[in-house]
Amino acid sequence: MKPVDEKELSAAIADASGPLAIVGGGTRKIGHRGGAPLYTGGLSGITLYEPGALTLVVRAGTPLQEVESALAAENQRLPFEPVDLRPLQGTSGEPTIGGVVATNAAGPRRIQAGACRDSLIGVRLVDGQGHILKNGGRVMKNVTGYDLVKLMAGSHGTLGVLSEVSFKLQPIPEAGASVLVEGLEDSAAIAMLARALGSPFDVNAAAHIPATGQTLVRVEGLEGSVKYRAGALASLLGGTVVDFDWTTIRDVRPFVGRTGDVWRFSVKPSDGPKLGAALRALGASDILYDWAGGLVWALAGEGRDLRPALSGFAGHGTLIRASDATKSAVPVFQPEPPAIARLSAGLRAKFDPRGILNTGMMA
Q1: pTM metric for this prediction
Q2: Which residue among 72, 164, 232, 326 is least enclosed by CB atoms within 10 Å?
Q3: What is the pLDDT of residues 329-345, one digit of tens each?
């Protein structure tokens, strides 16, 4: 099924006699997926773009590249730097903007701009009964009531199928620069990144690559300001100003082309190095730190359960790349505490009482 508008999407879901697997660009192989494919690519196109108001409204099946190209033509961008996991997961196709929202995707700039959900200001969706729902709008508002906008971000298509999404945007900065420090071990590197974030120099990316001993921070803005801030950070941290490709961190490129399972852990940044040590003790062969230590990527042999490394830490782990056999034996998403699990089940029962949308995706 490939509906071309919201009315067809509503009818397809209302008439479904069994589970539906929601497919955007087919680029993300996370979680369990079963049922008849429901393709959202027919729901494509920008419906409203107001560069002067930094506002975009776009249908959910629109390719991300099309969105980014339209914004770049006006010297604007999505603030949250959406990750592209195709090289890591070995997938093809084109990511869609709806898939970005459904997975709450965000890259290195999250430490400053927030995640996808923080730039999302409106959604239209079809729930599991075929009802068309709308929440939010074209401007940021603080109101009481149900915030379906935030709820849909990261729900992986289990609460409803997105038909249209709205974003606040930001201008593309005039310049950018990175500062590189080499030779630090994990704890010293994360402490240095904390020092950089605590400085007055407006750092918007901070990462550490243990395999190469590279520790990096990024600044963006007006050319003169970037030159000053990068130089000041280099002096403060004992590093050098470099031109670094941050898609290396965003897309976890150090793990691309290497065998094994890939895990993604989110913890308090200061806990990052301790979690990294615990992951290595459980068999992780490589680690990558983003978000100043708050995001920890781990590469491990096939079938290893690295989630016990979280014992003693507040955080969660997600199995991003693994065989179907491993995903059947090891929970892909972090098991929820009983109270949260009851809340999640209650939400799914309200939005999808028949249990047909991406059934078992987040089990």
Answers
A1: 0.93
A2: 72
A3: 999 999 989 999 999 99
